[in-house]
Structures
1.
Amino acid sequence: MSDLDKPTKPRKAVGIDLGTTFCAIAHIDAYGKPQIIPNTESERITPSVILFDGTNAIVGTMAKQNAVAEPEKIVDFVKREMGKSKSQFHREFNGKIYSAEELSAIIIRKLKADAEKYLGEPVTDAVITVPAYFNDAERTATLHSGQLAGLNVLQVINEPTAAALAYGLDKLEQEQTVFVFDLGGGTFDVTIMRIESNHIRMLASNGDHRLGGKDWDDIIVNWVAEEFDQLHNDNPLLDLQSYQDLYNRALTAKIQLSSRSRTTIVHSFNGKSVKLDITREDFENRARHLIEKCKTTCEIVMQEAKLDWTKIDRILLTGGMTRMPSVREMIKGMSSVPIADDVSPDEAVAIGAAMQGVLSMLGEEDVLGERILPQEVRDRFSGEDGSLIKVTNITTHTLGVVLWDDTRVEEYVFPMIRKMAPVPVETKNSFGTAKANMKNAIVRVVEGESTVPAECTPLGICDIELPPFLPKGSPVELTYTYNENQVLEVIVDAYGRQNRVQIARNTGLSDSEIESATADLLQITVL
Ligand code: AMP
């Protein structure tokens, strides 16, 4: 029996928004309609919090609620650590050390298991989203997390791209430029997308890795702590349990202030307590610098895209923090561009990811000649002429090579692929050897916006042996290719010799480690 004759296993794809504070998972139903999949607690979003309890890992609201009682058993905000090696970040529970991607895999396992229960079928494939400014190590770590959770990861895509897809499959034939403002629990991301004739193109993107709802929460936490200290000369933040308790109260207060003009927080610690009345106005005054930061990022992105507000047709809001009135006011103050209200800010990204899952599978159908998806789904996701919807992303970091500057007598970074280049992209350049009689041409690949090598992130090396007795300045050809899956390949050519290196990312796990880590993770029961 040839491979083509084998009965194909049923496949089911989902879209996963792996958020800093909350996750969401969605699928496309048999009629081609995107739907959020609720978890076993009947919630449409799941807190990205893990509670380790022996060999059990409890994920979601239960874990979050227990955070106060058992803070030492809790892991949260793991998205901020993605892409770090185990030596840079790890957490230890029950004698086992977990990397960021393993912890994220535990969260994904919960989402997958709950989805399977709800749908009544195995979930095999997924598209997972990341902030547009995530670098390659962070993306690869995200891909590994999905694999560790037992999923075939079809693609890792940018959150704003997913949001733009969710914004309107029906509107993709209208020409428009959308501004996606995504302020979540821990990250901030602004992206400008162009939609025309079934093609979504990213024009510019920028963001702040460390700006999100948590910063607003911290303002309230520190405010209450200051009042407590003034009253009782004691710091309620030094005790982990008291901190968690206050943190939860601050979070609730912040959300209340989105719909009310005032609220009250009472916090007790060491037998003493403080009561603080907070008005929305006072809170907004204390958080003004955060709003200003958001505004500056928006302005930078507009400059990078070389656009003014008259060229923007619609603003899309994603991330729970965009429910906050001061955020909306700031956005309205910048321009008179209408804000799209037909997508829920918490769900848009997962829904867009599920849509991308179908688009990826349709692409596979074309290649394999086999039908994976129901006809109704296929029809809904193809253009009127039967063509597929196309998504073009851009690079969000410059990929360069370290060269020698003879006049300045120092090394510098030459940009091979500049930030914001549409992907896939290939660039070629010819360089001269720095000295006579060089035995090897060593290409040092870096990522970053600076021309100073020390200020960029080293990604890898590609070298070739050179023939003997070459004069200084002998030509070496260098090619960088960057594909849709954000994999960089570097090719060095000189004198009939060639070396081709796929730049492996510095994440915690190698391919063989993924296999053993997957088996290891199965020892834990995820609830
Ligand atoms: P996300 O990571 O996109 O789910 O965003 C979650 C963040 O949004 C958290 O910091 C939440 O506290 C915050 N958030 C959710 N709803 C509201 C609301 N109504 N008002 C203010 N912040 C909110």
Note: The pocket of adenosine monophosphate is lined by residues 19-22, 184-185, 213, 251, 254-255, 258, 319-321, 323-324, 346 (CB under 6 Å).
2.
Amino acid sequence: MDKLQIVGGKRLNGDITISGAKNAALPILCAGLLTAGDLELTNVPRLHDVKTILRILAETGLKVDHDDERVTLNGSGIDKLEASYELVKTMRASILVLGPLLARFGEAKVSLPGGCAIGSRPVDQHIKGLQALGAEISIEGGYIYAKCKKLKGARIHTDMITVTGTENLLMAATLAEGETVLENAAREPEVTDLANLLVKMGAKIDGIGTDRLVIQGVPELHGAKHAVISDRIEAATFLCAVAATGGDINITNTRTDIFDVALDKLRELGLDMVVGANSIRATMNARPRPVSFRTTEYPGFPTDMQAQFMAVNTIASGTSRVTETIFENRFMHVQEMNRLGASIQTEGNTAFIKGVERLVGAPVMATDLRASASLVIAAMAAEGTTVIDRIYHLDRGYDRMEAKLSAVGADVVRIK
Ligand code: EPU
């Protein structure tokens, strides 16, 4: 298993290009199941999760042509309406094939995703929504079996805001008969990017970017070309990195209009930023100030940035308080940061962080994607050497992170 060895204390200086967003690319690739036409996608990030979803899609008979950041899909030969446990168990987003397969072919068999490190993450809302659209669904032997003659539009109000739930139901509704209204829809920019692609494919969707999506079903969708939106979480992760190490970086190929409160919080902790339309120049020359926040759905503070901001808070000039409201177990990085000398205590879903003067390198273990990124940040700010084990989590969702960091002066080496 690969590890990352990081020698801390190096300031970051230079340019970093941001890749396409993982959480937009995954649903968008699944949209290839909705049409017999060609879907030509660019700005697709080079990630392990992208490879996994492409394997799942290829198993259905979807033709996949993958060349670096370009992917072309053709869905004219799909003949297996199934996603197997072997692949689904490695990535929960695989559930995104359920809505499209069912809507286009009237049938799907998809493994029920298991638990995961950050929480139980059930998919009951996906199932409830598809049932409201007329699907018959049963669960047997760990598989979801879904069937319908033709999905029929309905009004669906999910019990909570769910990102992939909204995406699954949105994709299904594009081919349902009549009107579907999705109330309490997720407003994340990645949902909007999927909706924009579906419109290019011929879908009729109103309310894009709001919590009420109104979809008029159409008989079929056609091929389209689309560039995946830039990854706001990747961009904010690098901004946290420079806030922790000090330095001067310029991030490019970003979309600064879709940043949530993360940019305000970065300013609050002392990062000096010049924000252009597609770039951010960020300078940090002082010890970070502590920032407190609660994670919520977009446009609130993203749960996917909680761990990285906590890493900065560990060396801030005071105390802070971080509350996680989206996932019930997303503090696995806390014990690892404490191994580096941080002073963090948790009480339920709140962490109390007392900033320390310095962190000191130690062996630590990555537990999930964003926890891995937060440990990379903490290690770069620490004195001495840190070795991060189980770094495969990082490869799932960050496009060549260590190469991008090395290019701006970090001392990061992968140990095979
Ligand atoms: N939930 C249910 N039932 C459902 C669906 C969700 O109880 O049917 C609960 C979840 O357990 C959770 C909350 O609702 O407590 C929100 O979960 P959501 O469905 O929004 O999460 P997701 O769609 O599974 C996506 C991202 C996550 C990101 C969350 C929240 C993708 C592929 N994944 O997950 O990304 O944290 O939304 O913004 O889009 C990551 O990139 O590291 C990551 C985990």
Note: The longest strand covers residues 12-17.
3.
Amino acid sequence: MKQIQNYIGGELRSPESGHSLGNIDPATGETYSLVPDSDERDVDKAVTAATDAFSCWSTTPVDTRSQILHKIADAIDANVDRLAHAECVDSGKPLSLARSLEIPRAASNFRFFASAIVQSKSESHATDNVAINYTLRKPRGVAGLISPWNLPLYLFTWKVAPAIAFGNTAVAKPSEITPMTAYLFSQLCIEAGLPPGVLNVVHGTGAKAGAAIVSHPETTTISFTGGTVTGREIARVAAPMFKKIALELGGKNPNIIFADADLDEAIAGSLRSSFANQGQVCLCGSRIFVEQPVYDEFLTRFVEATKRLKVGDPLDEDTNQGALVSHIQRDKVLSYIDLAQEEGGTICCGGELPEYLPVRCRKGFFVSPTVITGLSVDARVNQEEIFGPVVTVTPFDSEKQVIDYANGVEYGLSASVWTKDVGRAHRVADRIEVGTVWINCWLVRDLRVPFGGMKQSGVGREGGEEAMRFFTEPKNVCIKIPYK
Ligand code: NAD
């Protein structure tokens, strides 16, 4: 069985404990590799390696850093098939999704920040005839980077690339549920010539390895993506230590369809935003609101389209819906489907385990994509993050009402709005309390724009300039002009 290793000080190493955790293929339910069960001793070694590497890496010319990051991007591109296969087996997502979207986006993360650092500008301000103020952006030291299981390599590199591009060194921990691509990635970093200690990858659980990264006195900066409950715990530990923290957390995103929308596009877009990656994308629109005049037509056509999605072996090219990431996640999703019925909802389709699965997948963690109607907007199923292939559809009467519905949850990550009325599009976008609004589209990404959530969906922003601000510290120098 394949043994995953930590990447510390430029070397692949076993954990100090000598213990491993089983890594399960969610499509089969079987353990197929072993993950280091690292603890604070491994984290301490990783932080020491990162601290030792910092003075050299932070003063390495930007061109050199950029070239190394480009090499890493090239290495990801050259290994798309291998990485996509690993991601598919680790997470249960369809191979086609990993190959076409996620792994290429991981390479883009590196390419984007490799280019950004050679183009970044600095600021200076002339203060009357008295002085010039110029602002230096200094890397902050050792960054602690913690990522979730839903988009494993993409979200991992979304943190690693900017952290090291701007001259920091890093100790990163992928989710223990989906560690394989981060392991393969650390091999690619060695091959690409990343100096030892610049990036260190410690595998293991959140309670041991993750908590040790957050509480280590030498990690100055913590970038975390994951659940809101975990984010709260990280803030509790890191805030009194005055660490800089960015938290990208959960969501319960509205997907709003006005009667004047192009219904073909709205249905196709809603299908993706509901069920991409089995609904396990933080940006999925799990609450669909449809204006009354088109509610019946939308629902009929949307349910038909949902039933046509093929649930199957993630390795099959024509599979649209793979497995959920774990049996815990599958059971959680099924419990919310039960709850929906208790709360008075109607299951229009899905809600059960898929009927036809290949033999090798019979013990996998599959749930058919599920559409629920008839729930109050205050029902728990409409309030709590489920993070699976489950959406609710609710009619609305007016723009004001749907804005209230959209904002009536504790989360504020993203929203989609479907309408041909440009004025309304801008108005609604302005009034919804979220970090990103997509109009007549979903998941269109531009790495230059700020990304993050409001309310319980997090604090801080990632992407472009925001990442530069997060991973660097401004230092202002005021020099007096010797005028008479
Ligand atoms: P999680 O919070 O359980 O785990 C995320 C990571 O944190 C894992 O690596 C885990 O090992 C680690 N961790 C757990 N406890 C920790 C602790 N006490 N200290 C330090 N690290 C700890 O989340 P998950 O189940 O892996 O991911 C799903 C969640 O992530 C969903 O809520 C989803 O909405 C959210 N998410 C948010 C975004 C975003 O950009 N806002 C993106 C993707 C996923």
Note: Residues 2-249+457-477 form a domain with the Aldehyde Dehydrogenase; Chain A, domain 1 fold (CATH 3.40.605.10).
4.
Amino acid sequence: MQSICIFLGASCGNDPIYMDAASAMGRELAARGITCVYGGSCTGLMNRLADSALEAGGRVVGVTVQALKDKEEFHRGLSELHVMPTMHARKKLMFDLSEAFIALPGGIGTYEEFFEVYTHRQMGLHSKPCALLNVNGFYSPMELMMRKAAQEGFMKTPHEESILIAETPAEMLDRLLGLPRG
Ligand code: AMP
């Protein structure tokens, strides 16, 4: 696998554990020679992910929109920065550039991006892996919601069968790459 898209908060979160997870994800991607595709921001967890991957010698591709670029909200040190006219065009390029998708903790922007690729996978429009990094139990309530949706007959394939959930970046990437852990 050569490139993975990371969706994650443009904010830092209140607990340093979230920034640490973004750092670790950047380092682990770089260590495996995997290009990190992300939203191109210079704030919050997004910025930390990009900085840590770049510091570790990794390749980071940002995909932003003109409106954010105009507000100077983009990372200036990326390996590549794509500036798209609309949010839809931006998500399409992030999809096209990536072989898998991982959501780290974040807010509604992160959920929206994750659920779009997950929905499209469930509809059979693609078969790229979709994953949630459950740092500090952050995504446990979302898992509960999806379990409820399956129990109540609103999800044909339970999320346990269709997305990958791991607690650390190293475990996540090893599982995505199909490596044994031990
Ligand atoms: P949120 O989780 O609401 O902080 O939104 C983060 C997600 O939405 C990221 O994965 C980005 O792709 C997108 N996003 C939100 N804010 C920005 C920003 N300032 N610059 C670039 N992308 C952003």
Note: Residues 41 and 167 are 24 Å apart (CA to CA).
